[in-house]
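On clarity, I found the account of how folds are encoded harder to follow than it need be. For illustration, here is how one protein appears when written out as sequence plus structure tokens.
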Amino acid sequence: MQLPSALILTTLLASFAMSARAVYPPPNDYIMSMGLDWANNYLSVYNSKGEDAFRWYKDYRRIRGSSTTTLADGSSRPLFKLDSTNDYCRHNKRFLQYNGQAWAERDYRLQIRDHRADMWHFNYPDKSGVRRYYRFNKNSSNMGGRIYRVARGQKDVLEGLLRTNVRYDKWWNDPKGRNTFTLSIVDEAPVVSDPEQSIQVDSLYRLLIPLSSNSPKWSC
């Protein structure tokens, strides 16, 4: 597994999962296997029943550092796309969605911090047009962490927990258990009526993706 890429995907996944709270009300888990399976040209993010809740697509363009990340629902219907021009290994990154506008509708930033855990910040406007801001505090010892909704002058609100664990759900068909990333959306997280108008998972961008060094789609 390559840590930087995994962090990127898990953060995106987290925010997307939050955006789908109206479809899958909290408390709720979103799960991704640490093993990669690109057979269908996407990576699956499962709900607790083993059904595809989200699908991740990633494409690198010819220009170095230029990439497009697409989050789709379980039937491969695109929810939104994020573009980056600095998607390098061990480098501060930024992923944006413009939707034909001059300003970014969604904005995800990864801050690489030497000798400390990396940090994600992301924001997007809700359906009423109010921009919501989030922070992902990664654990220093593993890929887990906590996702908070933040606002100046207000107390941070916990909205998601990210953990690495071994799961024994029957639908894995694996008696030894499966190494996974699990994103849990907590009850404090507000429910939204439109899955595309919420925190772009990210709370799920942080969710889950164990990337392997031999995968052609993930170079770090």
About this structure: The helical segments are 3-19. The two ends are 9 Å apart (CA to CA). The longest helix spans residues 3-19. Confidence is low (pLDDT under 50) at residues 189-202, 205-219.
